[in-house]
Amino acid sequence: MGTKKRVKESTIIPKVNADNSDEYDSFAARNSTQKNSDFTVFMHLLKASIGSGILFLPYAFSRVGYVSALMCSIVIGLISCHTAILTVQCSQILCKRMQKPSMDLAEIASTSFKFGPEKIRKYAVSLNVVTNVLVCFIQYETVIIYSLYVASSTQQLLDYFIDFKLDIRIYIIIFLPIYCLLALIPNFKYLVPCSILGALLLGLGFSITLYYLFIDFPSPGRLNMYTDMLSIPIYGSIFLFAVHNMTMIMPLENSMENPQNMPRILAASMILNMFIYMSFGFFGYNKYPNACDTIIKSLPMNQITAQIVKIVVTLSIICSYGLHYYVPVNILWPMISRKITRRHYLYEIIFRIGGVMATTIIAAAIPQMTPLLGLLTAICMTTMMLLLPATIELMTKWYDKDSLPSFYYRWIKDILIIIIWLIMLVFGVSENLRDIIKAYRTTNDVNSTNSC
């Protein structure tokens, strides 16, 4: 009887904190000595989102037509912007309720469940683990796509220069030792120079690519407005891969000088990013209507500048590999190491190398880069960008005493977001799987994976 009473009392502790939350200032409680200005955070958000994902957009435009692509971009972009802002706003509410200066994404998700219906509060700890796994899965997805991009780009270059044809899986394995070395780098500060070099190389390649898009500018009148409506989930997955920034929002918000301004900064940066993505996708499609999976591979091979772009972008992807791989290791290894009593260093090496081996095996098993990107994004990134924020808001504000219109607005809005998540999940998985199976039935597709 005493045990049941203690359990019952433990479920209402968050409510007690919620009642006293107005007296706690979570922003003032943050003791960071190096806080970022609004402009610095804005530039971080802008720079982080304009990455390798943008290179897939011209191909995505070619799959659905430019009108369908632009409309889909606006819808997904605005929803993603809204859910990102929701996450920040809920985190600030929960920090006040729990009297904590800051939280990471997993803490926000698990804490929100503590303020939901009593029957689901017991799942709060499990949700913390699930959220961390989602974050790790996104980073593992990125390194899988990176290994495929490097292999397919190298394949294209060697096919042209020395007429040396090999299965793409061989190239994936050739780069495995480099990835293993990058994965063994133990400290984030040692990855920073490599990451900066990667960003500079990508910026150089991106700039030269823009030159190619606008030189001898063709008339857009010849383009298809609509093509395959069934490919819209594929486009949505690719666009979401390009626009996603959920994993870095909270670290930036926690380091801000004025965290209360984060929603406005997020809105400004994501709308600007959305405009950049739409413009790049449209102009890339206009220049190369039959674009390869990435726009870089569509550039003419017989020109030196195009060859330079292909090389520097490939090098930039290799340089960025270690940074993306560091994130899941930094999250998962502390959880695992607590259960290991000896030889921590040896087991950590095995864990790091094992992750590289696993992602490489997946890339070699399914070397169709764009369908695999769409498949993994439909499973994981849609959950992170759509389902999780909507659920966090519903749980955080479950017992809020709102007006009836606000209550209905919140529920209808979040249920619609969850329905969109479900549609993107089901149709994104089915359509991308269909593309993968179709490619496997054609030997040429398996060997070349649309290297053009």
From TrEMBL:
**Protein's UniProt keywords contain Transmembrane helix:** yes
Residue ranges of the Amino acid transporter transmembrane domain? 37-430
Record's subcellular location: Membrane
Question: Entry's Pfam families?
Answer: Aa_trans
Work out whether the entry's keyword set contains Protein biosynthesis: no
Membrane topology term: Multi-pass membrane protein
Q: List the InterPro entries hit by this protein, alphabetically.
A: AA_transpt_TM (IPR013057)
Membrane-crossing residue ranges in chain numbering: 39-61, 67-88, 123-148, 168-185, 190-214, 234-253, 265-284, 304-324, 345-366, 372-390, 411-430
Give the molecular function GO annotations. L-amino acid transmembrane transporter activity
One GO cellular component term: vacuolar membrane
Which keywords belong to this entry?
A: Membrane, Transmembrane, Transmembrane helix
What is the protein named? Answer: Amino acid transporter transmembrane domain-containing protein
**From which lineage does this chain's organism come?**
Eukaryota, Metazoa, Ecdysozoa, Arthropoda, Hexapoda
